[in-house]
Design a protein that fits this description.
The complex is a heterodimer of chains A (about 200) and B (about 100).
Chain A lengths: L1 H8 L13 H29 L14 H26 L3 H31 L7 H33 L9 H26 L1
Helix pairs in contact in A: 2-5, 2-6, 3-4, 3-6, 4-5, 5-6
Chain B lengths: L17 H19 L5 H23 L7 H8 L2 H14 L1
The chains are: A mainly alpha (about 200), B mainly alpha (about 100).
Chain lengths: ~200, ~100
């Protein structure tokens, strides 16, 4: 525990001034703020293109496979749950729980991306492409950028998981786990919005 | 509260019931899909779906992202981009 004590003495865990939280967390939140604007830009464009479109927009379920995506939404929600479980585990110094739940999060996240790839394959097979009018263009742009975010999240999650297996996080210092958790939940949150406006409305 | 229990320090909080939040998110997702195909008037459906989506997003932000337990200033930072975001979406919607 001497290294932990040293960590505290060097001030990593000292209460920060300013926002009252540690720097990495502030950094992630500021980044997430920029991400909100990024996705808002996409959503704004979507509204303009959809309501300004001269052609009629397909009804929910007409082109897209809603049941499969609903299950995929549930899969992503499950990965958020395993992520908070990983965080809760290390908050209690439970290394085994941390590793198990981080690994589960990465695997479930990869499963989400796999289902999305399967969905894309099916759609393309049926002739629905990004070039298939405004509907195809907006669908692939919005879900594609989100899928890219999940993919990046899975890669980072594997990195954090590998670090956890080497004992890189402790009860006293597990900022990395919380910070990647924030990104992960944000990506889940964005999907909640996108699922509603792209698939259900 | 038990007398021997140490009071929570600033920034600390009891862990939210994550499984309950997860269950709520799963149930709300099922309700969403149901609402979308219920055949209610279009405007009612859209309003209901947006309400459910915002509800779910709030659950994730407040509990999974711990915003509910963060210092006030950090919550202000997190909420800041929502102002331009809402302005953009509302203005665009008024166009149509």
């Amino acid at each position: 525990m001497t290294s932990h004590a040293a960590t505290i003495e060097t001030g990593v865990r000292r209460p920060e001034r300013g926002l009252g939280v540690y720097d990495k967390k502030v950094g992630m939140w500021v980044f997430l703020c920029s991400e909100v604007m990024f996705f808002t830009g996409l959503i704004g464009s979507y509204i303009i293109l959809r309501f300004g479109a001269s052609s009629t927009w397909p009804m929910p379920g007409e082109v897209l496979n809603v049941p499969v995506t609903a299950v995929n939404t549930f899969i992503l929600i499950c990965s958020s749950m395993t992520m908070v479980k990983a965080f809760a585990a290390i908050e209690h110094g439970d290394q085994r729980g941390l590793r198990l739940f981080l690994l589960a999060t990465a695997v479930i996240g990869a499963l989400f991306v796999s289902v999305q790839v399967y969905e894309y394959r099916e759609l393309i097979h049926h002739g629905f492409l990004p070039s298939s009018g405004l509907y195809g263009a907006t669908f692939f742009t919005m879900t594609g950028f989100h899928g890219f975010h999940v993919t990046v999240g899975v890669i980072c999650m594997l990195w954090v998981t590998a670090r956890a297996f080497r004992g890189g996080y402790t009860l006293e210092d597990h900022q990395g786990v919380e910070v990647i958790g924030l990104y992960w939940h944000f990506v889940d949150l964005v999907w909640i919005i996108l699922f509603t406006i792209v698939y259900l409305i | 509260m038990n007398e021997t229990e140490t009071p929570l320090e600033v920034g600390e909080h009891r862990a939210p019931r994550y499984m309950a939040i997860w269950g709520a998110l799963a149930v709300l997702t099922m309700i969403e899909v149901g609402v979308a195909f219920l055949g209610m008037p279009r405007s009612v459906t859209i309003l209901a779906l947006l309400g459910l989506a915002i509800w779910k997003a709030l659950l994730v932000a407040l509990y999974f992202m711990h915003l509910r337990f963060e210092p006030k200033l950090l919550r202000v930072v997190a909420a800041a981009p929502l102002i331009p975001a809402i302005i953009l979406v509302v203005l665009v919607l008024f166009e149509y």
